[in-house]
Amino acid sequence: MAKPVAVVAAFSAGVLPRILDTIAGGPQPPAADWFLGTYGVNKRASELICAAPGCKYAPVFGIQPHTSAAAREGRKLPRAQAAKLDRTRAGHIPGPGVVPPTDQRAWGIELGRRFRDQIRANRDKGVQVDAWQFDEVISQVVSDARARAFVGGILRGLAEGRRKLEDRLEQGLVWTAAMAVSGLPGLAIVDDVQRFWEDFDRAALFLVGEEYPVFRDDAADVGRGLAAGHRALLASGGEIRKSLGKRYVVGMTPGWIDSEGLRGNVDGQPFGFVKTWRRGFIQGRCAGQAPRGFGQFNFVHENARPPRVTEAVTALHEATERLA
């Protein structure tokens, strides 16, 4: 039986030691395979993570202009490598928005390949990279063919890299917006939708569904309700969607940053309430549909306070032990 999966994404350098100490303070060896990383490839983070039993280094690459700014500016390759490639798309990715105004799939593939360029360059310097994380399959893929073309292209480029530079297929963890998880399974399978699913399947070691609830009402009921998108993937008539459902990881967040996207502890409840509510949510989520694992995203600002970090990571230990 495959081991459960635990994922930690987006943290500051100062928080990483506490995350690793909390993982080490749980069952040893860990019940789960742990994947950890934050934005960009970092040698010191790799060293710390890879030295921890059961942990794999998986840096995060972002789709938003502010998280992918350097990659969007242009290719950054050694001269010998650049000489092997067509320079048609070597420059700036056009447009100020997330999705470029033209040639969305081609630019998506190029952006994904630029992320692989970063991995390759760091490996050449001796940095260990075990996998990658992508943030994120945006909600617009449900309604906008241009967004599907761009996101699918990024996933394809990240997974396959550049054949002329001898890259091989490497799958990663694909964080996926809640609306995309709930809306994608019901889309009619027309040509561009089928290609998007093929891109997703090709790239995803695991699909991490961003189930960021408001910490309110009965936690177990909320957990059971948020399993609907996962169940829809598994119940789909398509083999790719079913397969992705079997690779589904529940994405959570520590909950202390009150924002429209992350939700969480919006009522300002005390620490004990948050701890109990999260455990109830996990219990209900497993009852609604057992996932492959659980993850936590965004250990920064209010989420980075030491007791909150320890509690959120400990919850991953408890959740994955439930699945083991």
Could you please describe the fold and organization of this structure?
The structure is a single chain. With 324 residues, the protein is of the alpha/beta class. It has one domain: TIM Barrel (Alpha-Beta Barrel), CATH 3.20.20. The protein contains 13 helices and nine strands. The chain has a nine-stranded parallel sheet with strand order 3-2-1-9-8-7-6-5-4. α6 runs parallel beside α8.
Cα end-to-end separation: 9 Å
Number of helices: 13
Point out poorly predicted stretches: none
- The CATH class, by name, is Alpha Beta
DSSP strand tally: 9
The helix fraction, in percent, is: 40-55%
Order of strands across the main sheet: 3-2-1-9-8-7-6-5-4
- Could you say which structural class the secondary elements and strand pairing correspond to? alpha/beta
Largest sheet: 9 strands, parallel
CATH architecture: Alpha-Beta Barrel
Number of domains: 1
Strand content: 5-15%
Task: Tell me, rounded to a whole number, the average pLDDT.
Answer: 97
Q: Per the principal axes of the C-alpha atoms, what is the gross shape? A: globular
Q: Rg, please?
A: 19 Å
N to C succession of SSEs: EHEHEEHHHEHEHHEHHHEHEH
Per CATH, what is the topology? Answer: TIM Barrel
Record keyword descriptors for this entry:
9-stranded parallel sheet; globular; 15% strand; TIM Barrel; 13 helices; alpha/beta; 324 residues
Give a brief description:
Helices cover 44% and strands 15% of the residues. The chain has helices at residues 16-24, 43-50, 69-73, 79-82, 104-124, 145-160, 178-183, 191-203, 219-226, 228-235, 239-246, 271-288, 306-323; strands at residues 5-11, 33-37, 55-57, 60-62, 133-137, 172-176, 204-210, 248-252, 293-299.
